[in-house]
Amino acid sequence: MKNYSNSGFTLLELLGVILVIGTLSAIAVPSWQTFVNTQRLNTAQDQVHRAMRQAQSQAKTQKLTWQASFRENNGIVQWTIHPASVNPANANWNNLDVNVRLDLETTLQESNGVRRIKFDHMGSVDQPPLGRITLSSKLGGRAKRCVFVSTILGTMRTSREQTTAQDGKYCY
C-alpha cells in the first residue's frame, strides 16, 4: 500500500502569504528609512557639538584662540578644530555621514567656504556674531538638527526641527 502525503501549501496559499509580506514591507520600509535618517542626523549633531566643545576646551587649556570649522567638500560635510592661527585648509578634516548636509538655516560666520566659530583663551566666543550649524538629510524629509552657540560666554545647546517656524526657521 502506497502512502501519499497531501501536506504542503497550495499556490493560492503561497500567493496570499507573499501578498501579506509585500504589504507589510511597503508599510514598514518608509518608517525604517525615516528612523535611519534621523539616527544619522543625531550622530552628526553629536559630532558637531563635541567638536565645538573640544575647540572651546582646547582654547581654555592652551590659553590660545581655537576655532571649530565646518565646510562642504565634494558634497560631504566636514569639520575640524585647530588654533585660530592655523589656516583651515591645512587642518585635519573629519567627515560627517555622506547623507548629511549643511542646511540653509546655518548661520555661523563664513569665510572662503568655511563656517567657523572661534573661542578665546577663556572659552568665550572670540568674534561675535553667534550662530548655529543646522544639519538636514540629503535624502529629504523634514528632520533637522541644530547646534547653537547661544551666548558670547560660549554657551552651546542643541535643538531639532519644530512644527512651526520662528523668524522663518524651523530649528530653534
- Name of the top-level CATH class: Alpha Beta
CATH superfamily: minor pseudopilin epsh domain
Spell the H/E element sequence. HEEEEEEEEEE
Q: What is the chains' assembly state? A: single chain
User: Which outline best applies?
Assistant: elongated
How would you describe what is shown here?
With 172 residues, the protein is an alpha+beta fold. It has one domain (11-171): minor pseudopilin epsh fold. Helix content is 30%, strand content 33%. It has one helix at 11-62; strands at residues 66-73, 76-83, 94-95, 100-102, 109-111, 114-119, 131-137, 144-149, 156-166, 169-171. The strands form two sheets. The chain has a five-stranded antiparallel beta sheet with strand order 3-2-1-6-5. A five-stranded antiparallel beta sheet has the order 4-7-8-9-10, with helices on one face. A hairpin with a 2-residue loop joins strand 5 (109-111) and strand 6 (114-119). The longest helix is centred in the first third of the chain and has 52 residues, at 11-62.
